[in-house]
Structures are given as structure tokens and as C-alpha cells.
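User: Fold this one for me? It's J domain-containing protein.
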Amino acid sequence: MRDLYQRLALTPDASDQDIENAVAHCPNSALRQDAETVLGVAEHRDAYNKLHKTVSDIGQLRARLGLTHGAHWQGNVANDFSLPPDNAISRHDELIDRVSLAVSLYNRWRRFKGPWLLITLFTLGVGIGLALGLTLGLGLGMG
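Assistant: Here's what I get for J domain-containing protein.
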């Protein structure tokens, strides 16, 4: 399916007058005939617009997934709705990256939790023992 709007340098919300002008100035007779048949009749244009929206959405989805047509399809009618691959990270990939980071941090914390807990308890016990020893030593020395 050809993207008649793209090939006529129009947007899908172009007025009837803009379409008539673009069709009249179109140098390609086959494209001009297709545009007159499809965009020149209100019912045909409504049906084409629905299909155009669906195929455009599919083209955007394909680009978002990094899919493109093979070299033999490039520049062909089948390539009208293809967009260049979108190299931005998808929301799914972004979520997977964030969850992976959280899991790795949690696993790192669990791995060191045991030894650090023992060291902390030992240090706390030594500190309390020293404090009690000093308190008792000072208390006995005064009395």
C-alpha cells in the first residue's frame, strides 16, 4: 500500500482543497489516478484514513522494535510506512534494567549481610564491655 499523503507531501488532516491542488500538480500519472480514486471520494478517503492509521501504527511499532525491510524492499511501495529503527531503549528494556539493578544490589547486600552482621555485633559487644569495664573500674576506684 502506498502512503498517498507522504507521496503527495500532505498530512492526513489535509483539506479537500489541498488534496485537489496536490493531485493536480502530481507529475506521476499512476499516483495521480490512485489519489483521485482514493482521496477524491469521501467514503474511500474515510476507509483509507482508518487503514492508514493502522499501517502507520504498525510502522512505528516495527521501528520501535528495530525492524526494517530488507535491502530489496528499500525504496519500494512496501516501504512507505517503514521508519528508521528507533534505537531508544524501550520501556520494557528500561524496566528490565532497573529490576536487574535492584536484584544485583539486593544479592550483594545478602552476600555481605552475614559477615557484616557478625562484625557489627562483635564490635558492639566489645564497646559495651569496655564501657561497662570503665564504669565499674571508675566506680570501684572511687569507693
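One thing worth pointing out: Helices lie at 4-7, 16-24, 29-39, 42-64, 91-142.
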